[in-house]
């Protein structure tokens, strides 16, 4: 295969993504995320908007110091103060940059900025020129470009190139564009803007009509060589272009796009999970690429096809995005032969397994649980063969916390101390422990890990309400990791901390059971 032209991935999870409700991250969390973005291989990290608050300034600075390979930049309006702040925030970066923006649509110029087109042009050029005295890497964005007059954009972009801009960004700020039209806008701008051939053109799409990925792909098909996107597609309103989707579309359809990225795609799934864990924003199960069901097959015909040849129903390999394996989901519609087939593929069809009994248990489980995953089958067989009870039983959870509401700057309640006293019966004997953590759920997790002798990491954690009203039952689902092994767990309760504790204990029981079975069979 010939070397394909590269498209730069500009990650704005920490700026545009973080602007979305519920996605606020503190400085430490942003640094953690930035390090993972570097592992993922993004080319540019937009770490924040330094002038917007001292907290944002500090976060950009810390991110700039934490990563080496990607360019780190801060957003700035055209005001000199904004530019000074942005430049200071990235001063210690190995590869610093700045991202200056101003709106160019008639609506925004007139109603939001109260400026004439000439004033906007002047402000843009002065800002870029000013920044250019201190830094080489300057991106300029024409906010609301997709609703701006293309000839005015040609004029603005031509002048900012002269002033020193090296990347020109064309945002679909309101998610209004449609792919053909957005692609045509790029073609027009690239061919008509004086100096347009020597800069990098960038697409920044919002997802209000669900077209952000399609619009970004149309842009690259028409000459853009940078895509601005966020992990899991988080961002203002309906979000931004989702990195995982746009990257995998170019990789999977390289025959069509003829383009490549620097993304280490096996880091996609871990990055998605880390963000979800940090923000608490769960990934929908049917989300392309990173959703739980993205590689899960339930229909009998599909399962049959995938067992014979994965490519029948899979256009990507789960391991290429960092997922362990494809999942063949079983449910109450699965027949006996499909069930036996699954046991065989999973290495669970051994002489000590009573198939009739196992299938009867599977049907009972299918009545209680809509989707049965590979781990459920492993635990089902382990339980059947070992004929033992679960080792751990949650007896009591007593959480307590002191919450300080004064941390307005970070727009989050600051939990100064959280504790949980947990009692668990281990092989029938009650044991109690008190632990302190970052939150009540964290304190519970620490206590349970210590009580069972299995300190675990949370790979995934999320919840949903099952019933309405004040006494609503909530379900917590988690995936824990102990050493090399991972396992799902679920807990239901009216209190979210108790539901979490039940989920952790459930996951540990399942993991324990499966581990014992594995050891008995010399590792499966
Ligand atoms: O959506 C938008 O227009 C932006 C700009 C600041 C680039 O986020
Ligand atoms: Zn945006």
Could you walk me through the main structural features you see in this protein, from its secondary elements to its overall organization?
This protein is of the alpha/beta class. The protein has 3 domains: 3-279, TIM Barrel (Alpha-Beta Barrel); 296-386, no CATH class; 392-520, Alpha-isopropylmalate synthase LeuA, regulatory domain (Double Stranded RNA Binding Domain), CATH 3.30.160. The protein is 41% helix and 22% strand. It has helices at 13-17, 27-40, 54-66, 80-89, 106-113, 117-132, 150-163, 179-192, 212-221, 243-252, 254-257, 268-279, 300-308, 336-345, 355-368, 374-386, 440-452, 496-520; strands spanning 5-6, 8-11, 44-48, 71-76, 96-103, 138-143, 167-172, 200-205, 226-229, 259-260, 296-297, 327-328, 392-404, 414-426, 429-437, 457-465, 474-482, 485-493. Strands 2-3-4-5-6-7-8-9 form an 8-stranded parallel beta barrel, surrounded by 8 helices. A 3-stranded antiparallel beta sheet has the order 13-14-15, with helices on one face. Strands 16-17-18 form a 3-stranded antiparallel beta sheet. Helix 3 runs parallel beside helix 4 (80-89) and helix 9 (212-221) crosses helix 10. The chain is globular, with a radius of gyration of 26 Å. The two termini are 38 Å apart. The relative contact order is 0.07. Bound molecules: 3-methyl-2-oxobutanoic acid (KIV) and zinc ion. Residues 16, 75, 101, 141, 143, 169, 171, 173, 204, 206 line the site of 3-methyl-2-oxobutanoic acid. 3-methyl-2-oxobutanoic acid is lined by residues 16, 75, 101, 141, 143, 169, 171, 173, 204, 206. Pathway: Amino-acid biosynthesis; L-leucine biosynthesis; L-leucine from 3-methyl-2-oxobutanoate: step 1/4.
């Amino acid at each position: 295969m010939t070397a394909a032209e590269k498209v730069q991935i500009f990650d704005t999870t920490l700026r545009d993504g973080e602007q979305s409700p519920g996605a606020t991250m503190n400085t430490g969390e942003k640094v953690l995320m930035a390090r993972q973005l570097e592992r993922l291989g993004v080319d540019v990290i937009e770490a924040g908007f330094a002038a917007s608050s001292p907290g944002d300034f500090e976060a950009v600075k810390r991110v700039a110091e934490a990563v080496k390979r990607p360019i780190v930049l801060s957003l700035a309006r055209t005001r000199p103060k904004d530019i000074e702040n942005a430049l200071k925030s990235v001063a210690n970066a190995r590869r610093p940059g700045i991202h200056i923006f101003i709106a160019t649509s008639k609506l925004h110029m007139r109603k939001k900025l109260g400026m004439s087109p000439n004033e906007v042009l002047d402000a843009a050029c002065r800002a870029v020129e000013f920044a250019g005295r201190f830094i080489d890497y300057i991106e300029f964005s024409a906010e609301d470009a997709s609703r701006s007059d293309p000839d005015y954009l040609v004029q603005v972009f031509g002048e900012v190139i002269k002033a020193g801009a090296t990347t020109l960004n064309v945002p679909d700020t309101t998610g209004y564009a449609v792919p053909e039209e957005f692609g045509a806008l790029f073609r027009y701008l690239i061919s008509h803007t004086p100096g347009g051939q020597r800069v990098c053109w960038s697409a920044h799409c919002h997802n209000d009509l669900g077209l952000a990925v399609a619009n970004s792909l149309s842009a690259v098909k028409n000459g853009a060589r940078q895509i601005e996107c966020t992990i899991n597609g988080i961002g203002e309103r309906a979000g931004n272009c989702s990195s995982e989707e746009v990257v995998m579309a170019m990789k999977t359809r390289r025959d069509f796009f003829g383009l490549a990225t620097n993304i280490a795609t096996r880091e996609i799934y871990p990055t998605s999970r880390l963000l979800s864990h940090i923000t608490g924003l769960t990934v929908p199960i049917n989300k392309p690429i990173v959703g739980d069901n993205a590689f899960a097959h339930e229909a009998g015909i599909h399962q049959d096809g995938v067992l014979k040849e994965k490519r029948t129903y899979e256009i990507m390999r789960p391991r290429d995005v960092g997922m362990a394996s494809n999942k063949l989901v079983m449910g109450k519609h699965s027949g006996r032969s499909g069930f036996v087939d699954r046991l065989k593929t999973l290495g669970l069809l051994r002489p000590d397994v009573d198939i009739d009994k196992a299938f009867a248990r599977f049907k009972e489980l299918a009545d209680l649980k809509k989707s049965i995953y590979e781990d459920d089958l492993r635990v089902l067989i382990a339980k059947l063969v070992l004929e033992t009870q679960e080792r751990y039983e949650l007896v009591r959870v007593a959480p307590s916390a002191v919450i300080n509401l004064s941390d307005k700057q970070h727009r989050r309640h600051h939990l100064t101390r959280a504790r949980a006293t947990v009692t668990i019966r281990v092989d029938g004997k009650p044991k109690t422990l008190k632990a302190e953590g970052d939150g009540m759920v964290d304190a519970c997790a620490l206590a349970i890990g210590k009580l069972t002798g299995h300190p675990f990491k949370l790979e995934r954690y999320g919840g949903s309400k099952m019933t309405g009203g004040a006494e609503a039952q909530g379900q917590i689902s988690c995936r824990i990791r102990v050493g090399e092994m991972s396992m799902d767990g679920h807990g239901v309760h009216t209190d979210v901390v108790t539901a979490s504790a039940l989920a952790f204990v459930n996951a540990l029981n399942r993991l324990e059971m499966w581990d014992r079975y594995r050891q008995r069979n010399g590792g499966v």
